[in-house]
Design brief:
By secondary structure, the protein is α/β, with parallel strands linked by helices. It has a domain of 167 residues: Trna Endonuclease, Chain: A, domain 1, CATH 3.40.1350. The protein is built from 13 helices and seven strands. A seven-stranded mixed beta sheet has the order 1-2-3-4-7-6-5, with helices on both faces. β1 and β2 form a beta hairpin. The longest helix is centred in the first third of the chain and has 18 residues. It starts with 5 loop residues before the first helix and ends in an 8-residue tail after the last helix. 26% of the residues are buried.
Length: 293
């Protein structure tokens, strides 16, 4: 995962999961030039049939090629970001068309800008029309950009995936509880997302506590091999039952750190007697003797 843009990478992975089993191909962080210039996400329709699940608000009418820029709660959507998106569109359209003299029609392309926070400064510049809650349209010469503001989206099932990227505790909770996973990697995606939030110094203490609790819940659900990734020894064992903590350890490792009394605790009289006899045999072999009192 990119250290500088973890939320962007996770945003792409969430769409990959969302479109699992459909005719939509998801291309995260597509390189569009010789000097690397990445567009956050491209959704490509490979069939003409209906998509078998409701899409998040603002994405209902996908074209054949859909370019998306994403701004997390740490970033502001501004005019330059929209200009970059248009530049990506121009470059991408040239690349996927048969030739520069036979460009695919504009109707084959749609542009989307998803931002977590409401872009106050950008909206004050004018040129935006609100379509409904959380959905705006910006029109440039020959290009319309659909702007989706996560913090303004209603809490309904089909928006749950986008709420996973909210910086509001209520939306984040709704996303975690209502997003329907479609691949086995979803639990890992959620864990990585919450961990990224937990490590963010800008998150409010209330939301940070919710994220911590969410991580604890997810840890209990993750398979053992996934628990171990990036966790301290204490975190790896957290939430595991005693038998799972001991699984794979040698007898010596299982007893390591226990006092003699703790090692004998729980043994029956017969087991204690057998243990004492074993101790006596060992002492005798070493030239000593011991008798039980």
């Amino acid at each position: 995962m990119s250290e500088q843009r973890p939320l962007h990478r996770l945003f792409g992975l969430s769409w990959t999961d969302f479109f699992q089993g459909t005719d939509v191909s998801v291309e995260p962080e597509m390189d569009l030039s010789l000097k690397q210039q990445f567009v956050d996400l491209v959704l490509i329709r490979k069939g003409s049939g209906p998509i078998p699940r409701p899409l998040p608000d603002g994405f209902e009418d996908l074209a054949l090629h859909n370019l998306i820029t994403f701004k997390s709660h740490r970033e502001a959507l501004d005019g330059w970001a929209l200009c970059e998106l248009i530049g990506h569109y121009v470059n991408y359209r040239k690349q996927v068309s048969p030739s520069l003299d036979a460009l695919l029609p504009e109707s084959n392309f749609r542009l989307f800008a998803v931002c977590v926070r409401y872009p106050h400064n950008l909206m004050q510049q004018g040129g935006f029309k609100q379509v409904r809650a959380g959905i705006y349209e910006a029109t440039y010469p020959g290009v319309t950009i659909q702007v989706i503001v996560v913090h303004q989206l209603p809490q309904v099932e089909h928006n749950a995936m986008l709420h996973l990227f909210s910086a509001r505790a209520d939306q984040l909770r709704y996303g975690k509880e209502h997003y329907q996973p479609r691949s086995r990697e979803t639990s890992t995606l959620l864990y990585e997302l919450f961990r990224a939030y937990q490590e963010d110094p800008d998150m409010a203490s209330q939301l940070e506590e919710f994220v911590r609790q969410s991580i604890d819940e997810l840890l209990k659900k993750l398979p053992p091999q996934k628990r171990l990734e990036g966790l301290s020894p204490e975190e790896r064992l957290e939430g595991l039952p005693p038998e799972k903590r001991l699984e794979g350890l040698s007898p010596e490792k299982r007893l390591e750190g226990l006092s003699p009394e703790e090692r004998l605790e729980g043994l029956s009289p017969e087991e204690l007697r057998a243990a004492m006899e074993a101790v006596q045999r060992r002492l005798k072999a070493n030239g000593s003797s011991a008798k039980p009192e």
